[in-house]
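@channel sequence for tomorrow's demo:
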Amino acid sequence: MKTTLNTDITVNDICDGFVYNELEGKGLFGLSGKLTIQPEYQRNYIYAHEGKEAAVIESVLKDYPIGLIYFNKTSDGKFEVLDGQQRITSLGRFITEKFAIQDEDGLQQNFSGMAKDKKKRILEAKLTIYECEGEETEIKAWFKTINIAGVPLNNQELLNAIYSGPFVTLGKEEFSNSQNANIQKWSVYVKGSANRQEFLERALDWVSKGDIDGYMTSHRKEKNINELKKYFNSVIDWISSVFTDVESEMRGLEWGRLYEEYHKKAYNPTKVSAKVQELYGDPYVKNRKGIYEFILGGSTETKLLDVRVFDDAIKKSVYASQTKVAEAKGKSNCPLCAIGHNANKSTIWKLADMDADHVAAWSKGGGTNIKNCQILCKSHNRAKGNR
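C-alpha cells (generated this afternoon):
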C-alpha cells in the first residue's frame, strides 16, 4: 500500500462543502465534495454522545495537534476518510453551527459568535494527513490496524468495515439510526446504543444463531435485509406478547436463544404476568433476571433464580438439634439415612458433610426459614432435587 504525507490541507479546506445529516448522525462530505467523510464501513458519529467534540475545537484553538488523519484515495481520484472522521465531523459540525463550546467565562459560544482571530485560527489550522492507495483488502486491514488506538472499534463496527456493501448499509440505516422510532421499544429488551451498532449486532446475532461473521459473509452483496428485519421483529413481538409487563431486568437477556427454545410453546400472558409479579415480590429470589427463563421453562429450574440459601446460623442450629435427637435414638442425623437400610443408617455426619435443605421445596411454597430447614447428607440432598 502506498502512502503520501500531505500537510497543506487546512480545516477550512476540509470543511468546504461539509454536509451533516442530523437524521442519520453522519458527516457525509467535505473538501469541496471530493472527500467522503463517512464511507459505509465507518462507524456512526459518537463524539457528541461521548462529550468529546468540544475538546477537538479547544485543541485546535490552543494549537495542539489533533493527531494523524488517514485518507483512502479511490479509483476516481477522490478520497474517503480511513481514520479521523470523528475529528473531522466535530470540526465541520462546529463551523456549521451544530454545537457550541464554553469560552473563558463559562459562556456558550458558537462559531459565528467567535472573535475573528479565533475563527481564523480554527480555519487556517493545518492537518497532518496521510493519503493511502491500495487494494480493498489492504485498505480494510489498515483500517482495522489504525483503529486500535483512540476510541476502539467494537466487534460489530469492525465487521461492518470488513463486510461493507449494500447489506451493511441497509442494516445500519435500520438498526443504527438513533432517530428510528422503534429504538425506544427495542431498548426495553436490547442493551446498548444504536450509534455503537449494538442493535444491529443483536439482530444479526439472533438471526444467525450466533454466527454473525458467517451470516455477514453470505449476505454481504444482498440488496435487502428482509430476513434480518423479519426475524428481529418476530423475537421482539414474541417477548412483548408473552411478557406484558416491562421490567428493567428484561434488558440484555439472551432473547434470541430463548425465542428459539420456547416460541413454539403456548403461554397465557395473564398467568405469566401474575407469576412474574409473584416472583418479583418474593424476598428469597436473588436473581430477577432469571425469572423469565424460569417461567418459560415451566418454573422448575430454581437455580435460575439463585434462591436465597439458609444462612450459617440456621444451619448450625438445625444441625445441633437434629444430631442431639439422632444420637439419643441411635440413628443417623440425616433423616433419610435414618430410615434407610444401608451402613449409613446410624451414621452421625459432620456438618461439613451435610447440606441445608427445604423440607417443603421453595418452588412449592416452602420458605427459607428455620421451620422449613432440615440438614441432609450431601448424597441425599443432591438426590432429593426439587421434590
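heads up for whoever presents: The CA atoms of residues 28 and 258 lie 39 Å apart.
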